[in-house]
Write a structure and sequence with these properties.
The protein is built from 17 helices and no strands. By secondary structure, it is mainly α. The chain has one domain. Keywords: Membrane, Transmembrane, Transmembrane helix. InterPro entries: Gate_dom, Spore_IM_YlbJ.
Length: 405
């Protein structure tokens, strides 16, 4: 009873202090809010919407079940999750956070995952997509596309390591099943696909409408969290809390032989990855390798902003958030470790480290490459796509409200 009352007081005080901070720093709050809104409607919404809609339809038509049967012999021994986890893992890497959580929650609602399996799966299917690592971070912040290879390798190797580690989670609670090992069978996979489609007897139009409604509803929630944490991060800096945390972190950075100037970017990155990565790239006292290690940790930890998005999605199911949070800490340390050990054998050996930080990037993201064109297209057309999609959402919502009234 006492703990419950204490929690109530702490939550009430936190929200009250946040309200006072908003009143005290109105211009800074508005600027941070606009920054978060721009990031959401220019990049996040248009890049995630197609993945969310297609994922919903693939689940409804049974394609995910088909893929799951084929990937069962791979995913079960490695990560102790069903084959459908392979689809969530691939889509999570392709589309970025929080797609992995969205798909895991959906598969749990469909009954294709047990609670323990879902908690294992969600811990390693949420990661940054290559477009963000190469485009926004490597080119946008560090002006060096070559750095993207190290960040991507460290990020995805760390993700894989987390998956292997989390396979041991929940073994005591999980019932031991003596399942026969089966080889991938196209006949069984097609049978599962057909059975899933028959069980979901929604017409194509209804299925598409539900996919659009569900996807946009999730993206609206994501946008709210991005704006909220963008403002929160700014307020924490202005009221001095970021500075206090940074002072405590300086002792740890000194022990690790890292510049203490990385403390504030690191704390900012703990709350919001984009701002933290940008601030890390601007620390002149740190070497390029030290910046890469800190950025790798920030990208892997995902920031409280992304974690809040995941928590909101998981709250719609019985999936516990705690294993996901612990996995993010492990992912952060794994990614930082891989970035450090891969720096000399890969970056310094195969890439030109003498290139100045403001040089024109080369390789996969040079001007004219397909990834550069794709990133530029998303930034330029993102707001238009967002407005059109929201208009469609409003029309569908109004139509459904009329039907139910």
């Amino acid at each position: 009873m006492f703990r419950s009352k204490l929690k109530t007081i702490i939550l009430a005080l936190t929200v009250t202090l946040m309200a006072i901070s908003l009143i005290s720093f109105p211009q800074e709050s508005v600027d941070a809010s606009i920054r978060g809104l721009n990031m959401w409607w220019e990049i996040v919404f248009p890049s995630l919407l197609p993945f969310f809609i297609v994922s919903e339809m693939l689940i409804g038509f049974g394609v995910v079940k088909f893929i799951g049967v084929l990937l069962e012999p791979l995913m079960r021994p490695l990560f102790r999750v069903p084959g459908v986890g392979g689809f969530a893992w691939a889509m999570g890497m392709a589309s970025g956070y929080p797609a992995g959580a969205k798909l895991t929650a959906r598969l749990r609602q469909e009954g294709q995952l047990t609670k323990i399996e879902a908690e294992r799966l969600v811990s390693f299917t949420n990661c940054s997509n290559p477009l963000f690592i190469f485009g926004a971070v490597s080119v946008g912040f560090f002006h060096n596309a070559q750095l993207g290879m190290i960040l991507a390798l460290a990020h995805y190797l760390g993700n894989f390591s987390v998956g292997l580690l989390m396979r041991f989670y929940g073994r005591k609670q999980e019932e031991t099943k003596n399942e026969k090992k089966r080889k991938p069978s196209l006949r069984v996979a097609f049978s599962a696909l057909h059975r899933t489609r028959i069980n979901d007897n929604r017409p194509i139009g209804k299925l598409l409408g539900d996919a659009v409604m569900s996807s946009i509803k999730t993206l609206l929630m994501i946008g709210g969290f991005i704006i909220l944490f963008s403002v929160l991060n700014k307020l924490l800096f202005h009221v001095g809390i970021t500075g206090l945390l940074a002072n405590a972190l300086e002792y740890i950075l000194s022990a690790l032989h890292l510049p203490i100037e990385l403390s504030i970017p690191f704390i900012s990155g703990i709350f919001e990855i984009t701002l933290g990565s940008q601030m890390t790239s601007q620390v002149q006292q740190a070497t390029f390798m030290q910046q890469a290690v800190i950025t790798s940790f920030i990208l892997a930890f995902s920031g409280f902003s992304v974690q809040a998005q995941v928590a909101s999605i998981l709250a719609q199911t019985d999936i516990d958030f705690k294993p996901f949070f612990i996995a993010r800490i492990f992912h952060g340390f794994f990614a930082a470790f891989y970035a450090a050990i891969l720096w000399k054998p890969i970056f310094e050996r195969f890439y030109n480290t003498e290139q100045p930080s403001n040089a024109i990037p080369v390789g996969i993201f040079e001007d004219g490459s397909w990834m550069h064109k794709w990133y530029t297209l998303i930034v330029e057309t993102g707001p238009i796509i967002t407005i059109i999609a929201l208009s469609i959402y409003v029309l569908l919502l109004a139509k459904r409200l009329r039907v139910h009234s």
